[in-house]
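Quick one: structure for this chain?
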Amino acid sequence: MSLRLRRAIIVLLSLAGLALVIMRAAPDATTQTAAPAQVASDAAGSAAGVLETLAVKGRAPKTGYTRDQFGSGWATVNGCDTRNIILYRDLANAAINEKCEVTSGTLHDPYTAKPIEFSRGASADIQIDHVVALSNSWQTGSQYFTRAQRVQLANDPLELLAVDGPANQQKGDGDAATWLPSNKPFRCQYVARQIAIKQKYALWVTSAEKDAIQTVLNACPGQALPAK
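Got it. Here's what it folds into:
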């Protein structure tokens, strides 16, 4: 790993690990903001236990949502962008060039369980997924964040996975009630990561989403939350 990439990963992980001060969603449609709340950067307990602490509400309107609300593309740290940092983290035998770009590697895709060879400029089969889709986050609380907080969410390594492109396109902005990875052994880890993200950023879940997550976790009641 190059020194520049190593430093970029350290900085990005450090920023992602900071506690967030966010504006919680309003209790009714007429209130736009509420008192700021400090959100812990890590989550204690099992995924099932933390799920019970999340607020349950209906989805807010998607009005006003655009990808640009979460920043114009990937953030850059020490000359390395978030996409390449995540590729380096998730690909086996990842190679990088002097521009801090991943040039090759192998993804053992968590969504489909198939191996995917990556070659820069010759492969579009791997995408970086926002595990909690950004539009979903918008409808479950992040529309009340500052722009800087949304940019942090969109670039948080906890929120990001390198995955099979077609599977990611199939997922779209779905939550656990409408989409789960075809790789069933990964589903417990997948919903646990969604819980960790929603807890970290004080996002809520819908009742259908909570029911779907609980159904998955019934098969793995001791599933822990991911650290990052």
